[in-house]
Automatic annotation (TrEMBL):
<protein>
    <submittedName>
        <fullName>Uncharacterized protein</fullName>
    </submittedName>
</protein>
<keyword id="KW-0472">Membrane</keyword>
<feature type="transmembrane region" description="Helical">
    <location>
        <begin position="173"/>
        <end position="198"/>
    </location>
</feature>
<feature type="transmembrane region" description="Helical">
    <location>
        <begin position="274"/>
        <end position="293"/>
    </location>
</feature>
<keyword id="KW-1133">Transmembrane helix</keyword>
<feature type="transmembrane region" description="Helical">
    <location>
        <begin position="204"/>
        <end position="225"/>
    </location>
</feature>
<feature type="transmembrane region" description="Helical">
    <location>
        <begin position="237"/>
        <end position="262"/>
    </location>
</feature>
<feature type="transmembrane region" description="Helical">
    <location>
        <begin position="16"/>
        <end position="36"/>
    </location>
</feature>
<feature type="transmembrane region" description="Helical">
    <location>
        <begin position="57"/>
        <end position="78"/>
    </location>
</feature>
<feature type="transmembrane region" description="Helical">
    <location>
        <begin position="90"/>
        <end position="116"/>
    </location>
</feature>
<keyword id="KW-0812">Transmembrane</keyword>
<dbReference type="GO" id="GO:0016020">
    <property type="term" value="C:membrane"/>
</dbReference>
């Protein structure tokens, strides 16, 4: 039987497994923060956050969908907290659901702003500015090929498009991290916990099943509609989110909690570094699964719906 960190005191944290496991978590997080800094320097367009890839689907439907998903996520969190208390936030599942709720909250606000606020007026003004620039180009250049004019106009339009602010950046970060976290949560629950631990001490209720399924379902529905990109660099947000959860677990166990919500977090076993290494490595296929889904979206949907789906990249 393992000794708890609270009962054993400081001796629990000076064993050799602690710095090894700490490095296994810290090194990927350090690289993740480096990628995050680089990715934040790239401009993010506001129109990518609230528009859709479907010609005849109004962005209003995406707004309503995000608002509905946010309400459902908050309701699920409320019900599980009311049933088990705030203690449930020791588990990664509730962290994931909270992150999904944050994404849909930010998405609802950004979609509302993009649909009703000055971005559309700015876009119409941008079109006028582009037309003026086109006239100037025609006056100053005698012979210009038609395709060259189109390229210049597209560049001008992109230059005038409104950039996404901090809110839009946080929304993109939450989306990329929540995608990987949802896959990790649901795969571990349905493929490991349910088949091997289901019994008298572990039962799947409607609430537990919903909170381990609707997180991914809501995100997949949003992915099918939205225009958000899913870059490889987004993996850094997923890694940082996982590292933050581990830091949280270590902190609360060093201060007041004498048990681990997941047995693979236990540091007193000689197998702890292998468990933590496996925990770090499993992030790769989980993010990769969602990346493949997004890739399939841009390869299959244009073929299935050639006149309805707009493939921009």
């Amino acid at each position: 039987m393992f000794e708890s960190p609270v009962e054993e005191g400081w001796r629990y944290w000076v064993r050799w497994q602690v710095p090894v496991c700490g490095l296994i978590i810290a090194i990927p997080c350090a690289f993740a923060l480096k990628f995050i800094r680089k990715s934040m320097a790239k401009p993010l367009l506001l129109s990518d956050l609230w528009s859709t890839h479907w010609r005849h689907l109004s962005p209003l439907w995406l707004l309503l969908y995000r608002a509905f998903a946010f309400v459902c996520c908050v309701q699920l969190l409320y019900e599980i907290v009311a049933l088990h208390g705030p203690f449930v936030f020791f588990f990664y599942t509730q962290w994931t659901m909270a992150l999904v709720a944050i994404y849909f909250a930010l998405g609802t606000v950004v979609s509302a702003y993009g649909y009703w606020c000055p971005s559309r007026k700015t876009h119409s003004k941008n079109e006028e500015d582009v037309k003026l620039m086109e006239k100037d180009l025609k006056k100053n250049v005698d012979i210009v090929k038609e395709d060259t004019i189109k390229v210049q106009n597209e560049c001008a339009q992109q230059e005038f498009q409104e950039k996404a602010g901090c809110l839009g950046t946080l929304m993109q970060m939450a989306y990329l991290a929540a995608a990987g976290a949802s896959v990790l949560t649901d795969v571990v629950f349905w493929c490991l916990l349910v088949p091997f631990l289901l019994g008298e001490n572990f039962q799947v209720s409607l609430l537990i099943g919903s909170i381990h399924a609707l997180n991914a379902v809501f995100l997949l529905g949003d992915t099918a509609i939205n225009s958000l990109s899913f870059p490889f660099s987004g993996f850094a947000y997923f890694v940082a989110f996982g590292g933050l959860y581990v830091v949280f677990q270590w902190t609360v166990h060093a201060c007041c909690v004498n048990w681990w919500p997941y047995p693979f977090f236990e540091l007193s076993t000689p197998w702890a570094p292998l468990w933590y290494l496996g925990l770090a490595v499993i992030h790769i296929p989980c993010y990769g699964i969602y990346a493949l889904i997004v890739k399939a979206k841009y390869s299959l949907l244009p073929r299935l719906f050639p006149h309805a789906f707009v493939k921009t990249f």
